[in-house]
């Protein structure tokens, strides 16, 4: 009987800082904006042989009840600029930037991404996000002009147009004219950057709506998802990957990587205690009320964080928070949280802690390595994007204590086998069109 080798997992590192992931008050927490912090986390990820380093980005500081949201980072440098600097202090690590497809233009962004791909030797990636938010749009000439139903239509055409530009140089290295005539873009000219080492930078997508899943199936190489439990992960993976065939793609063409947290301890009890303390630090009494207000859409400052959930229902169009992605059906979320609170006798703060966290792997290094392997082996994900709670040293312990165990199990690389991000992810090179 032939024994199949274990499935290799993919790992990436997310630099946190927007929302309540980061434990700001921890004495080990350092700057969120100084280059030394980005460099430390990136170097740690490369030491751990991770596939890529991932930067989120917001285009406007969020507001809550008319005031700057106090968990946003003020002064965060622009992502592609940071990644170009990181290209000089790393050698193999992929470099992924979040860039909005609603408030940018294909020609300009395609040049910036191709430039990063050249400067890094083929390690660039683009996390495509969209927005129909007029609040964010006020920073741009067109404002919040784009209807929600159009955001993925524009994003799909944006990616397709960028790929036309990346393909516009001939195989022997000469520029040739391009012309794109579409619903959202009407451009023509010559692209100034030669075809880059990867041909096309890797495309990442993070939307979970039906439109987002369809867009990922048609255009993305990686999905950054919040589906953390094995059951939800398998259902999500099955749904997205079944859509690939209609676009002439195979399941290997798309990697599903949920964002996860990891908390380690020398014993299971110690790890659980550390995880509980981290969650308490992440969800302060003030933060618990703020999160609840984002769902209920009304001022709840009079409520006790250690008391019961509100009996009132969420409003249909919450207006308290500006610049944040809507949480979906807030009435359904409220009902789910009430049921959880009633079942376990939880206060507001305890409910937020239990209901709003990412998928967490908590335990000894050996137990966490085994659980990560099981998750991938059972088809719930192709790998993970680690979201540490400390900046910049939150990845150190995982790299030192868990990565060697994954390597011993034969489920993670012991060295980089290629030089490009596509090679790390096992993605084929794009076929030149035109």
Automatic annotation (TrEMBL):
Keyword tags: Flavoprotein, FMN, Monooxygenase, Oxidoreductase
CDD domains: Nitrilotriacetate_monoxgenase (cd01095)
Domain of life: Bacteria
Domain Luciferase-like per the UniProt entry, residue ranges: 31-380
Keyword Chloroplast: no
Classification via Gene3D superfamilies: Luciferase-like domain
Residues that coordinate or bind FMN: 98, 152, 209
Gene Ontology MF terms: monooxygenase activity; oxidoreductase activity, acting on paired donors, with incorporation or reduction of molecular oxygen
NCBIfam families reported in the protein's UniProt record: FMN_nitrolo
UniProt similarity note: Belongs to the NtaA/SnaA/DszA monooxygenase family.
Alphabetized PANTHER family for the sequence: ALKANESULFONATE MONOOXYGENASE-RELATED (PTHR30011), C2H2 FINGER DOMAIN TRANSCRIPTION FACTOR (EUROFUNG)-RELATED (PTHR30011:SF16)
The protein's name in its UniProt record: Oxygenase
Lineage, uppermost ranks: Bacteria, Bacillati, Actinomycetota, Actinomycetes, Kitasatosporales
């Amino acid at each position: 009987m032939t024994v199949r080798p274990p499935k290799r997992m993919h790992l990436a590192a997310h630099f946190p800082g927007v929302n309540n992931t980061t434990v700001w008050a921890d004495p080990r927490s350092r700057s969120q904006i100084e280059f030394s912090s980005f460099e430390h986390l990136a170097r740690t990820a490369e030491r751990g042989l991770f596939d890529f380093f991932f930067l989120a980005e917001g285009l406007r500081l969020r507001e809550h009840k008319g005031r700057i949201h106090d968990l946003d980072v003020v002064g965060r440098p622009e992502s592609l600029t940071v990644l170009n600097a990181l290209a000089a202090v790393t050698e193999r690590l992929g470099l992924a930037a979040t860039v909005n497809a609603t408030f940018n233009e294909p020609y300009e962004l395609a040049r910036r991404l191709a430039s990063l791909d050249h400067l890094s030797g083929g390690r660039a990636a683009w996390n495509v996000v969209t927005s129909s938010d007029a609040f964010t749009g006020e920073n741009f000439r067109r404002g919040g002009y784009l209807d929600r139903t159009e955001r993925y239509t524009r994003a799909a055409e944006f990616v397709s147009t960028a790929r036309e530009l990346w393909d516009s140089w001939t195989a022997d290295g000469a520029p040739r004219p391009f012309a794109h005539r579409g619903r959202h873009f009407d451009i023509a000219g010559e692209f100034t950057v030669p075809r880059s080492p990867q041909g096309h930078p890797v495309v990442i997508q993070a939307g979970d709506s039906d439109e987002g899943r369809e867009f990922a199936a048609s255009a993305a190489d990686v999905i950054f998802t919040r589906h953390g439990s094995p059951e939800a992960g398998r259902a999500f993976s099955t749904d997205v990957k079944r859509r690939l065939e209609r676009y002439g793609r195979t399941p290997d063409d798309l990697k599903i990587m949920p964002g996860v947290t990891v908390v380690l301890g020398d014993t299971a009890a110690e790890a659980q205690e550390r995880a509980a303390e981290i969650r308490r630090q992440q969800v302060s009494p003030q933060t618990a009320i703020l999160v609840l207000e984002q769902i209920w859409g009304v001022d709840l400052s009079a409520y006790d964080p250690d008391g019961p959930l509100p009996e009132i229902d969420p409003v249909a169009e919450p207006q308290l928070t500006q610049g944040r992605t809507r949480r979906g059906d807030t009435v359904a979320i409220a009902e789910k949280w009430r049921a959880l609170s009633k079942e376990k006798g939880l206060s507001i703060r305890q409910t937020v802690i239990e209901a709003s966290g990412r998928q967490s792997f908590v335990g000894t290094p050996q137990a966490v390595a085994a659980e990560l392997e099981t998750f991938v082996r059972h088809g719930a994900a192709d790998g993970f994007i680690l979201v540490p709670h400390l900046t910049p040293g939150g990845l150190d312990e995982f790299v030192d204590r868990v990565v060697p165990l994954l390597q011993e199990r034969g489920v993670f690389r012991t060295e980089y086998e290629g030089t490009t991000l596509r090679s790390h992810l096992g993605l084929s090179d794009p076929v030149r069109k035109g």
